[in-house]
């Protein structure tokens, strides 16, 4: 495939991520599957591209003092372990089965994204929740595993969960989750590289996706305050549900 298609996919995914604070992996994985990439290749390409985008994002949030270092460590380490295992799992299952698996997982994530934005809640648990090691380790591991095995999901799982179960400042949640995603992306990429003999990766996918995301990143940062967050999230959620629903029906 022409790398330009993947550059466009990366641009669209980064625009969504910049507006919602999440969704690069979820959106780009869906687009790559639609363009014909296999499940494992799509996830491997997304995470390789995310190494650069999450590094830039993490450094930016660090300079802006949007990061809680304690929460970062407690999320990132188990998140990296989960991502490594998730990448190994996806690389090991039969490709015909992985197509249905990843589409089903993305379908679920689409419903979750839609639900989070249709039915917002102001409920919050104890302000000490973000300092609960066991909770953060479980959340990080689960988010990392789902993210790597499904091609995306770290942001849609971890960010809303912390938003609705803790009293952390929203900017600190977004910054901390974004910075910790760098570790998740690196760990997932290592997992795919360890199983490189099982994958047929077209590196033009990785390059195109990374290029498109990098070019769109500064534009997305400027548009984030202007784009309507909730309607866009609902639109993206519906699109992901429809696309992956059709893929599951078609088998």
Short précis:
With 251 residues, the protein is mostly helical.
Can you describe what's shown?
This protein has 251 residues and is mainly alpha-helical. Helices cover 80% and strands 0% of the residues. The chain has 10 helices and no strands. The two termini are 22 Å apart.
Task: Outline the fold blueprint.
Elements: H1 3-20, H2 24-34, H3 39-63, H4 69-92, H5 95-118, H6 133-150, H7 154-165, H8 170-194, H9 203-223, H10 229-250
Order of helices and strands: HHHHHHHHHH
Count of distinct strands: 0
Fraction of residues in helices?
A: over 70%
- Counting helices, strands and paired strands, the structural category is mainly alpha
Strand content is: under 5%
Mean pLDDT: 78
Give the biggest beta sheet: none
Note the quaternary state here. single chain
Query: Total helix count?
Result: 10
pLDDT below 50 for ≥5 consecutive residues: which ranges?
A: 122-126
Distance between the termini: 22 Å
Overall morphology = globular
Radius of gyration: 17 Å
Provide key terms for this protein.
mainly alpha; 251 residues; 10 helices; single chain; globular
């Amino acid at each position: 495939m022409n790398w330009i298609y993947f550059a466009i996919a990366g641009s669209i995914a980064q625009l969504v991520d910049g507006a919602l604070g999440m969704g690069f992996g979820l959106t780009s994985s869906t687009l790559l599957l639609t363009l014909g990439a296999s499940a494992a290749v799509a996830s491997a390409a997304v995470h390789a591209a995310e190494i650069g985008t999450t590094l830039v994002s993490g450094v930016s949030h660090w300079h802006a003092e949007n990061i809680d270092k304690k929460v970062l460590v407690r999320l990132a380490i188990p998140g990296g372990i989960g991502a490594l295992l998730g990448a190994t799992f996806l690389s090991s299952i039969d490709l015909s089965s992985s197509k249905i698996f990843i589409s089903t997982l993305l379908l679920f994530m689409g419903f979750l994204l839609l639900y989070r934005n249709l039915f917002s809640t102001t409920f919050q648990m104890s302000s000490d929740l973000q300092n609960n090691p066991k909770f953060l380790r479980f959340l990080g591991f689960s988010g990392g595993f789902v993210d790597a095995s499904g091609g995306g999901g770290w942001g849609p799982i971890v960010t809303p969960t912390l938003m609705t179960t803790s009293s952390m400042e929203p900017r600190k949640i977004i910054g901390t989750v974004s910075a910790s995603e760098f570790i998740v992306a690196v760990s997932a990429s290592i997992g795919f590289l360890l199983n490189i003999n099982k994958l047929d990766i077209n590196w033009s996918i990785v390059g195109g996706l990374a290029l498109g995301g990098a070019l769109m990143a500064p534009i997305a940062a400027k548009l984030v305050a202007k784009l309507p967050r909730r309607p866009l999230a609902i639109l993206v959620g519906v699109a992901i549900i429809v696309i992956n629903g059709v893929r599951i029906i078609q088998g």
